Amino acid sequence: SLVGVKDMSTIETPPLNRLPVETVICGYDERIIRDAINRELERQGQVYFLHNRVQSIQKTRDRIAELCPGARVEFGHGQMDADDLETVMQRFVAGKIDVLVCTTIIESGLDIPNANTIIIDRADRFGLADLYQLRGRVGRAEHKAYAYLLLPRDMMTVGAARKRINAIQQYSSLGAGFRIAMRDLEIRGAGSILGTAQSGHIVAVGFDLYCQLLKQAVSQLKGETVRPRLEVETRLDFLATNEGEFLAAGPEKVVPAFIPTAYISDAALRIQAYRNLAEITTAEQLQRLWKEWRDRFGKWSTAVDNLLLLSEIKLSAARARVSRVEVREGKLMLTRRGDFILVGGKFPRLTSVKIDLNLPEVLQWLKQL
Questions:
Q1: What single DSSP character describes residue 55?
Q2: pTM
Q3: Residue-wise pLDDT tens digits, 133-161
Q4: What HEC string does 73-130 produce?
Q5: What angle do CA 66, 145, 182 make, to 5 degrees?
Q6: What fold characterizes domain 233-367?
């Protein structure tokens, strides 16, 4: 916008009883195709088989009919006579066709609740937005839906196409469209957001950091005070920052400081929560986040308490211009402007008897600087 960077809201709540589409990535294998079709037909459903080449669509239809002799298989594409295409689509909607071999003509405008399996041939030839749109043709009712993305064997592990396919599989939760769009932007690269240039520096710094820098630049142009953010590195040997570390070491040796999956079960929400915490620069922002989490996710465990305390430690360190906070075998090593902060020529030592009191003691040291 010409008047500043605007906020944006996204709708991520799916319709009631809607289930995410299970996405399967595999090489082209007729056994997988046959099994996927038969599984859907056994539960009285219908199948899209997307073959986006008009020249060979009739041959593909015949092959699918050979693989599944009991299935009613037809094809449809945009170059057919309009009346013939309409007849095919009406028959599919009416349930008189089991498998529709088709092109991307189905990408929009169709809502067939009984079609809950889609098989996409040569998925590597589609963009991320296309794959997301095509996957959305199934799973439009209360039934579990499946999307099979078929790749040539030599493209199973490498290339930009594989990155797009992985993104579709990773973001399979309902309401993931915005995250897929951001991933697509990162894969393809982006040009200058401000201006007409088709190339820029986003790929060098990442989209999120680019947006932060852009926000700072807009604030400076408005005449607002923008304080440079000091990144504080923390290395605390008594702290476990993920569930694996905590379970491996045990509560006698480390204290937890992370968001447990039991508190925020959705991985995307958990990552967003970590990101929101990482972007905090003031105590007021931390307090607002504290209230938001409590209101949104409910009462939390000691692990979340410690994580918020760790964030407060970083804020205090930044205010004191301390760039590194390290605790090793009870020694507190603080670095400011490249030099250690010493007391009587020595590193100060933590005196807490209980390990879970170490974080508050570190915070107290920083507040005294």
A1: G
A2: 0.54
A3: 898 889 888 888 999 999 887 766 566 66
A4: EEEECCCCCHHHHHHHHHHHHCCCCCEEEECHHHCCCCCCCCEEEEEECCHHHCCHHH
A5: 115
A6: Aspartate Aminotransferase, domain 1 (3.90.1150)
